[in-house]
Amino acid sequence: MPKGENVFYVFRLLRPSRKNSLWASPTTSIIEFLKTYSIQAYIVLFAIVSIALGFLATSTYGPAVSGDSIAYLSVAENLLSGRGMVDSFGGSLTHFPPLLPVILAGCSRLFQCDVFNSAWVLNLALLGINFVLSNIWLYKFFQNRLIYFFIGTILILFSESNLRMHTAVLSEPLYLTFILLFFIFGWEYIEKRSTSSLLILLLIAILSPLLRFSGFSQVIAGGLLIIYVYRKTIPIGLLLSGAFGFIAILPISFWLSMDNALRYKIFIGDGNQVNLVENLLQSFRKIMYWFLPYRPFSSHGFLEPVILVGIIFILLLLINKNKNWKIWLQSFWHPAMFSMMLFTLIYFSSTTTNIISTHHRDLSSDRYYVVIMLPILVFIFNVFDFLVLPHLRFEPKYLYATVFVIILVWSIYPVVKIKKYIDISRQGESHYYNVYNLREYRESQTLAQIHILLKQKPDTVIYSNLPRLVWLHTRLITSGLPEINQSWGDADIIDKLSGWPGERSGYIVFLNNDPYKMYYSPQILEKIATMKLLYDMEDGKIYYVSEK
Fold first, then answer.
1. CA distance 112 to 406
2. pLDDT attached to residue 356
């Protein structure tokens, strides 16, 4: 570390070149950056606006909570309670890496607050941080094409998908931070081959798989960047790349081995549940919906993005010659573009070949793609700059002014979407990322009554048809009821489930509003267990269950 630098050295930002060049040199301290250039006030101001939007959306009930959210929160809570790395069911954390629960537990211990509040504040802070990092990259890359910087600022600020992701308890917001830092320091490493940048890339590659299994994309991309940098001395590049990958995967390998989660293979996936073609079409459809309002006329809405991309591609072929395409392709070899697009290609390929298709058919289930919104925007800007702009015979100042006005008018669309999302969130209504933190459940008489019962018998076993919801409101390990098997008849249920719940007698909290309907009802369970109805509420029932 250079003399005079402190521990914040790793957060060096991109320094604008004093030359009038599109390709800027990438480093200076954050203090110098903020003091020297007034554009940073613009970035910080809109970062505050983005945080304000996030706070407005969560001000009534807090962040959205899904099944994945409960996994992170419950493990963090159990860590604080001394139970170890176990989830809301009392089982080991196997389907998620450990970094986010550890961070939430650490923040809760440090600030003496609940894990739910830790996640809430962390995500709002990351909303502002990620906005700043994204726009610093845009400003540094397009500093002599500021129109793209301003348009990018508007698109990111008014992205309802980005706001939704940052106002839910998910690992994606922090993962986006790692991605943006990878773009910045990957650019610097290719351009300067600096040891400090390589060490930062290594740190990102170590932490990313511990946050999300898709974080292996940083490991692969980092190794390929090293080979690219040492392409003239391949043996050295291969040696450094191998060492980089080996060190990067050691912590996650240790975790997988110790926690016995090897059955969760992110780069293999379940061939019976992953449909590559559908995942590709879904990704195009969701990305198109970021920019264009549309009502699907084709089955599942898959045809519309194909038609749109096809028309654009044909038009570009008609107006461009070979030299235009060569110049455009050459632009991707710039250090900033190369590091960004290399990672994006690896990450996108990993995502489309691993996500379970049936789980992500909802149009609003786009968090896997929001984290690469910046590369998608940069790609679009690059296409326009090299393949469209040279053919427009207008003075640049008039052209840019027209484009900027069009973007301002277009912004009505995402603003309307953001307003709708904020209204839904403040009213405590359900949406794709929010299944459990609803007004209906917060005002539930059934959940209020189980609190009273648990004060009298805090060690009682709890069962529920919504066990994650009950955990959220009680913070006690909650088991699910026996799961429905569609192939079983009454005789099979009695035969297979006879003896349940054995020595684990306890309360059943059965909520009427069950979006999943994956567990047997109390009426069915009466055939195999002794059920005593304690409370019959408007929104649910509480039973005491014991072995028959």
1. 48
2. 80
What does the DSSP assignment read for 241-256?
A: HHHHHHHHHHHHHHHH
Residue type, 103: I
β-pairing verdict for 540-547 and 506-511: antiparallel
Q: What is the pLDDT of residues 214-262, one digit of tens each?
A: 999 999 999 999 999 999 999 999 999 999 999 999 999 888 876 544 4
Mode of pairing for the β-strands spanning 479-480 and 506-511: unpaired
Task: Look up residue 67 and give its two tokens.
Answer: 């099944």
CA 468/CA 478 separation, integer angstroms: 7
Question: Residue 19 burial (CB < 10 Å; 0-12/13-18/19+)?
Answer: exposed
Residue whose pair of structure tokens reads 């690469």 in the numeric block? 372
**Which is nearest to 172 in space by CA: 350, 362, 368, 377?**
368
**Spatial distance between the Cα atoms of 206 and 216, rounded to a whole number of angstroms:** 9
Residue that is written with structure tokens 């989660």 in the block? 261
Give the whole-angstrom CA distance, residue 492 versus residue 509.
Answer: 25
Q: Whole-prediction pTM value?
A: 0.89
What confidence category does residue 141 fall into, taking pLDDT thresholds of 50, 70 and 90? very high
d(CA 104, CA 109): 9
